[in-house]
Design goal:
The complex is a heterodimer of chains A (about 900) and B (about 90). By secondary structure, chain A is mainly α. Chain A is built from 45 helices and no strands. The chains are: A mainly alpha (about 900), B mainly alpha (about 90).
């Protein structure tokens, strides 16, 4: 022991630096100033001068030898031991503690806290935590231990695994949860649920750890403000507070004191050195652009090395991306893998990127590979827990693969399907079969959109397949109206009106005010009535007519006129001449004249194939007054035909020519709708001049329909006026946008899209209006090339086009806008099948039937209609059967 | 940026988390002050709240064709997950 200084000179015992740290001279205690001396010692402790405080307390106690002086000395010892612990001098602290416990046996209990703290620091938590198992432990002791846990225990893993506490102990459970959350939050993104930590209550000594974990999570999420708030809430004396300076540095907060080595190292590990990595990646991008394999490999090595150093968490993704670039760019695989220092991780993210890269290829084999990769992605993603095998994500993926397969032409896809099956030896390559994909998607997620996509796909391939999908859709989702409408329309197309009406009835139960549903009943009844007339069953047609009359919608517009015309024909077919005459008079009255009634009756008669009941004189036989009425009457009848969806409505051609001739004189008396109807009629009947004149008359009246008339004008312009054609279509597109007419926009954009191999032609509204002005100034039907307004300022002429190789190539690939491809006859196998089954003679051998079907198919493709072909074939077969018998007979 | 990044939620976020993130972003970018950002946030929320749109976005939310340099955001500070060890080293030192 040192000789006390008081013995030597009874002077100042401690620091000479500050008077505040100098306690009163113990000798003065003889004068009775002990309290002041004690206060001075405690001040030293408070100022962190533990060694001096201890020396002074020893001096004081030697002189005093009272319980108060001993208490002061013990406090000084405790403070000194704590300071040794704070300096990581656990052995020294433990030695001093043992010494004190030996000298002051009566103070053992008082020193227990210090003992526990020393034990805790040395990794022996049992000594610290054992007293907590005592149910009789006083609150002071508990608080003291909890304070040590909060301020001394740095190892959560040890606390969580400490056997001194039972596994059910709340403190141990809290430590376990915190330890797990700490590992997670420092290793990767976490959810709110993962760091909610309900096991750690606010009053727990471990609560600062919870705040620390939240702060780290916010730091990685980029939620800096929330991170700062959590850091500010951490108690400064707690262990987690040790991370606050480093985390503030990560947040960009400048601190007065320099970071300790461990803190600086942590900051360096967390904050990436991004500029260098960005430079390496930019260099790699340039190397890929140059297609220089040697340079690419060199740049890959540099980028991987830098990423490994400064952003290790992005290394997996980087390697995957580089590997994909290499695969798509056909780089040497071995060389690339060498530069990457191994193959990239083939996880779900990799397969997803790979599939996306492949599905955008122009090569159909790549597209097939993309589908296979999507399947691998699905399997891997399910394995990695991205989604369930029967989850909505899987259904969405199946639909996506089906959409990808659309890129492959049908015949080629069939080849891939066949070759795939051969190669895999029966393994289910479902991903090459759209129907299987749609079925899988609809089983997992029977959603309207999925069924709609399936039915849309099926309808492009086979009507019967589409109908099967529609029936399945209706079975699984009976509340959806779409399949019923589709089935109804298909039944209507094949004249199965009863079936169509039964579907309509179901649709009416779902949505009676649906526009298609509302229009359908009258249309179906009308079509049914005309069908009965065609089959010479006027009584059934009359029944249908009676049903139509009862419908409220049959009283709207010119529909009563149609009913009267139909009644006229039914009466004619039934031999009721009186009724027929009365009905004709009614039709004439309702349709505003004889001409319109005659047109409608004749048109219905053509549909019902009972032309004996309706005759029209040649147009030239009409008076001038009657001829002038032709355009308006035609327009009125056309509106009815359009309203009721009547197909195969015909009128003598001479009337269309006459309408074209009369139109300029009567156009001012017609409504816009009538003009538009006549314009469309002109296009449909190959009378472009009628359409042209109608467009001019419509443009004169301006208004929201101007875009429609511009489009009509573009469609009716004869060949040889390319610039004018494009200017009209571009103006129609722009004014269509202005008036929000989507139908016009779609059609006009088809014309102006990429017409000369460059960009689409687009005009401003002002330019479009200028086109209208120029057209109104040039009403004459263009008869020869070059006549009409000049649009060279709006539409580039070929000489002004960009001549760079890319643009020239693009123009070569582009379709000539003025080239009209002849419509190829489409072979609808389902339709042909139906006609065949309806008309093929009964009892015909299957082999012969198949042969006949092929003949029919070929004949159809040569230009004959299916009905004509089949009736001819059937006729030939019948005659062949009859003739054959005779021949056989002759042979005999 | 995909919808998850716009709302700042992980790919496996629950509906509650998505809604909470959306509300928080809307407070941060109200429509009267940041209409463009608000619209972006609304679109992202619309995508994430519909399981089918969300699934579609999940499938297509990546591209290999973007420049590699775009992997690293020029302005954003990159914070790396370094694991628990360096953090614990600091906790042990006084």
């Amino acid at each position: 022991m040192k000789v006390p200084r008081t013995r030597r000179n009874a002077s100042v015992t401690v620091s000479r630096k500050s008077k505040a740290n100098i306690p009163p001279n113990p000798s003065s205690f003889y004068g009775g100033n002990g309290q002041a001396f004690e206060a001075g010692v405690r001040q030293l402790i408070a100022n962190g001068k533990f060694r001096n405080a201890l020396e002074s307390a020893k001096e004081f106690h030697k002189v005093q030898r009272t319980s108060a002086s001993e208490s002061l000395l013990l406090d000084a010892y405790a403070a000194r031991i704590q300071s040794l612990l704070d300096q990581n001098l656990e052995p020294e602290a433990k030695s001093l503690l043992d010494l004190v416990r030996k000298r002051f046996p009566s103070a053992r209990e008082r020193l227990d806290t210090a003992v526990a703290a020393v034990s805790a620091r040395a990794g022996d938590l049992a000594g610290l935590l054992q007293p907590l198992n005592d149910p009789e432990i006083n609150s002071e002791r508990r608080t003291s231990i909890e304070r040590i846990i909060q301020t001394q225990v740095t190892d959560l893993t040890a606390l969580a695994g400490c056997v001194a506490l039972s596994p059910e102990n709340s403190l141990r459970q809290a430590a376990t949860a915190l330890d797990r959350a700490f590992d997670m939050v420092t290793s990767g993104p976490v959810t709110e649920e993962q760091i909610a930590l309900p096991e750690v209550p606010y009053r727990s000594p471990l609560a600062p750890w919870k705040l620390l974990i939240r702060a780290i999570a916010c730091l990685h999420r980029g939620e800096d403000e929330a991170c700062r708030e959590s850091l500010a809430a951490i108690k400064p004396e707690s262990i987690p507070a040790r991370l606050v300076p480093a985390m503030q540095a990560m947040l960009g907060v400048k601190t007065a004191t320099a970071l300790k080595p461990a803190e600086a190292m942590l900051v360096a590990r967390i904050i990436a050195n991004l500029p260098e990595l960005r430079g390496a990646l930019a260099n790699l991008d340039r190397a890929f652009a140059e297609h220089n394999e040697g340079r690419i490999f060199k740049a890959v090595r540099a980028a991987v090395r830098e990423c490994h150093h400064s952003a290790p968490d992005r290394l997996v993704e980087l390697k995957q991306l580089i590997a994909l670039r290499g695969a798509v760019g056909c780089l040497d695989t071995r060389g690339l893998l060498g530069a990457l220092e191994g193959a990239p991780r083939q996880d779900a993210a990799f397969f997803r990127m790979y599939a996306l890269a492949m599905e955008g290829s122009d090569d159909e084999e790549d597209v097939v590979e993309a589908c296979e990769l999507w399947d691998k992605f699905r399997q891997q993603a399910v394995q990695e827990g991205w989604f369930r095998a029967s989850g909505v994500e899987a259904a969405t993926l199946y639909l996506h693969i089906a959409a990808v397969l659309e890129q492959i032409p049908g015949e080629l896809l069939k080849k891939f399907q066949r070759s795939g099956n051969r190669q895999t030896g029966g393994e289910d390559r479902y991903f090459l079969f759209p129907e299987k994909l749609f079925a899988r998607a609809c089983v997992i997620d029977p959603h309207s959109d999925a069924f709609a996509q399936w039915m849309c796909w099926a309808a492009r391939h086979s009507v019967s397949q589409a109908e099967a999908v529609g029936r399945e859709w209706h079975r699984i989702r009976p509340g959806d109206i779409e399949p019923l409408l589709y089935l109804m329309q298909q039944a209507e197309k094949r004249k199965a009106f009863s079936t169509a009406l039964s579907y309509l009835e179901k649709a009416e139960h779902i949505d009676a005010v649906h526009s298609v549903v509302r229009a359908a009943r009258l249309r179906l009844l009308a079509a049914g009535a005309m069908n009965h007339l065609q089959k010479k069953k006027p009584h059934l047609a009359a029944e249908k007519l009676a049903l139509m009359v009862q419908l409220p919608q049959s009283q709207q517009g010119d529909r009563p006129g149609f009913l009267a015309a139909l009644r006229h024909l039914i009466c004619e077919a039934s031999g009721d001449e009186g009724g027929a005459a009365e009905a004709r008079r009614e039709a004439e009255s309702l349709l505003g004249g004889v001409m319109a009634a005659d047109f409608l009756i004749f048109g219905i008669a053509t549909v019902a194939r009972c032309l004996d009941s309706a005759l029209l004189p040649p147009a030239r036989a009409l008076s001038q007054q009657e001829r002038k009425a032709i355009p308006a009457s035609l327009a009125r009848v056309l509106a009815i035909v359009k309203d009721l969806g009547i197909t195969k409505f015909q009128l003598p051609v001479s009337y269309f020519s006459e309408a074209e001739a009369q139109f300029p004189d009567v156009s001012d008396s017609l409504s816009l709708e009538q003009i538009l109807s006549l314009g469309e009629l002109g296009m449909a009947t190959d009378n472009p001049k009628l359409a042209w004149d109608a467009s001019g008359a419509g443009l004169k009246q301006s208004g929201p329909a101007e875009a429609r008339f511009l489009l009509l004008r573009a469609q009716s312009i004869p060949p040889g006026h390319g610039a004018r054609y494009l200017a009209l279509a571009a103006a129609a597109a722009e004014l269509g946008r202005f008036h929000r007419d989507m139908d016009v926009i779609d059609k006009a954009i088809e014309i102006v899209r990429n017409p000369l191999g460059g960009h689409s032609i687009a005009l401003t509204v002002e330019e479009a209006r200028e086109v209208v002005r120029k057209e109104l100034a040039s009403p004459a039907f263009p008869s020869r090339s070059g006549s009409g307004p000049d649009y060279s300022d709006l539409i580039p002429v070929p000489g002004d086009l960009c001549q760079c190789p890319d643009c020239r190539q693009e123009r070569e690939n582009a379709l000539d806008p003025f080239y009209e491809e002849e419509d190829e006859p489409e072979f609808d196998e389902a339709e042909m099948d139906r006609i065949f089954n309806d008309t093929v003679p009964k009892g015909i051998p299957p082999a012969l039937a198949k042969q006949l079907f092929e003949i029919m198919r070929e004949s159809f493709l040569t230009g004959d209609s299916p009905e004509e072909v089949m009736s001819r074939v059937a006729g030939e077969v019948r005659s062949a059967n009859g003739g054959g018998g005779k021949k056989r007979g002759r042979r005999k | 940026m995909n919808a998850n990044e716009i709302l700042g939620v992980p790919a496996n976020a629950t509906e509650e988390e998505i809604r909470a993130a959306w509300l928080s972003k809307v407070k941060e970018f109200p429509p009267d002050r940041s209409p463009a950002e608000f619209e972006r946030i609304r679109d992202a929320y619309d995508t994430l709240r519909d399981p089918r749109k969300r699934a579609k976005a999940m499938l297509l939310s990546t591209t290999f064709a973007a420049p590699l340099v775009s992997l690293i955001d020029e302005h954003k500070v990159q914070r790396i997950f370094a694991g628990p060890r360096p953090w614990r080293e600091v906790l042990k030192t006084k």
